[in-house]
Amino acid sequence: MNLEKLKRVGTIKRFAKGDFICYEGEIGTEMFIILSGQVGIYGNSFKGVQEKFAVLGSGEFFGEMSMLDDLPRSASGIAESPVIVLSIAKENFQLLIKEMPDMAFAIMTGLSRRIRRLEAKLLEDCNEAPVVAKAIEEAASVKVSEPAPAETPATISPVVKTEQVVAIDLLPEGHKHYGVVAPETHKNFYYEKQVTCPVCNGEFITKNPRMTKIRLERRENDLREVYVDFDPLWYNIRTCPYCLYSENYNDFDKIKRLSPEGLRSYQEKALKLHGKVTLPPPEPLSIDRVFLSYYLAIYFAGDEQENPLNIAKLYMALSWLYQDVGDEELYRRSWNLAFDYYYQAYYGSSKAKLKPEHEQQLCLILGELYLRKGEINEALKHFYGAIRRLDGTAFYNNLARDRYMEVKEQRK
Ligand SMILES: [Zn+2]
Question: 132: CA distance to ligand 1 center in Å?
């Protein structure tokens, strides 16, 4: 880059750290090429909060959009260190194209890349909170890598910041897009409610099942409850559309009682998802969104051994949903994982916390899953265990007895 040539087409301007180089909303009549220092690009995101979009360094440029289209600037440029820029007025831009076609080409390339990035961001921002926790706001800025400071004008490099993407594989291998949407009849059995996310404080509308209104049709051997014209499995998990925190709707607010440190671990988990997961729209509610909400709930529940039963139930629900969409493989994977967690819950150290009826239920479900695994003796042992529990409920006693007899009968 020829500095002498640049000086012919523009004016050198100096700014102290913290100075505004240009303001969001003003009509831009000039663009800037950074000769030295760092410039933070700030603007209002779609969620209405001030956000740092990027940090630009020597050789990079900004302000060209407004200069070219005569519309108000979409962002402010603030000096993050002492900054020297070359300001190029609109009337000199043609001269620049003529004198320095390489430079003009770099600007065009940079522009198109920015547009692409903006498009991606737009999609992502549809998932962002109107009010977000500070930690989550920070995420937006840490995503942009800081350019290495350079003191002398370097060659103009197109403005591309490669983002450090940490892959989070929430969905298992083989998980598909199933495309099924909630049947019309569901509408009669839920109500909408505005809630506040305990992780990011975002407010959103959620659908709560009306458990008092629904009618149980039958209970499967694996204890799945089938209701008339409704399936609460679709509504059990509440997901914050902004930070993606997900949990059973009954327990969604539980973490409000946590200490700030406890809450922070959830915010950190939310941060790791930032910009990497796109939640399908809430309306029409699709099974794809429901699946994702379960995997998010499992992600937020973590690996801590404290709540194996909670995780077991999430996997069991997933297995039923996979059963509904006819995905045999993931159905099997899900109930096998459910089995592992049920097993931990029943035989692990957290067993002491279980209520008698839950213990009985667990024993019964382990029997059923052992049966599926083809381990008949273990199945019988667990059914028998559930029959023997006199402090459980009669319903489970009877179900366990029926299953025990059926399996014995089949084995003959
Ligand atoms: Zn949230």
Answer: 7
Domain total in the chain: 2
| Cα 242 to averaged position of ligand 1 atoms, centre (Å) | 5
- How far is the centre of ligand 1, averaged over its atoms, from the C-alpha of 382 (Å)? 41
12 has which bridge partners? Answer: 86
Query: Exposed, middle or buried, 165 (CB in 10 Å: 0-12/13-18/19+)?
Result: exposed
CB 86 within 8 A of CB 35: yes
Which residue ranges of the chain lie beneath pLDDT 70?
A: 1-3, 45-49, 112-114, 116-168, 303-305, 350-352
CA 328 / ligand 1 centre spacing (Å)? 33
- The parent domain of residue 192 ranges over 184-411
User: pLDDT, tens digit, for every residue of 17-35?
Assistant: 988 898 888 888 889 989 8
The pLDDT of residue 105 is 72
Instruction: Answer yes or no: is 113 within a domain.
Output: yes
How far does the centroid of ligand 1 lie from the alpha carbon of residue 188, in Å?
Answer: 27
Segment 331-357, tens digit of pLDDT: 999 999 999 999 999 998 766 678 888
Q: Residues within 5 Å of ion ligand 1 by Cβ?
A: 197, 199-200, 202, 240, 242-243, 245
Question: Measured between alpha carbons, how far apart are the two ends of the chain, in Å?
Answer: 88
* Residue 202 in domain: yes
Last residue of a domain, one of 126, 146, 174: 126
Same domain for 92 and 200? no
My answer on whether 100 and 226 are in the same domain is: no
What CATH number is associated with residue 43? Answer: 2.60.120.10
Kindly state the DSSP code that residue 258 receives in the 8-state scheme: S
Asked whether the beta carbons of 161 and 85 are under 8 A apart, the reply is no
Boundary residue ending a domain (126, 142, 176):
126
Q: Within a domain: residue 171?
A: no
> Is residue 86 within 8 Å of residue 33, measured between CB atoms?
yes
Query: Does 142 reside within a domain?
Result: no
Q: What is the C-alpha separation between 12 and 1, in angstroms, rounded?
A: 15
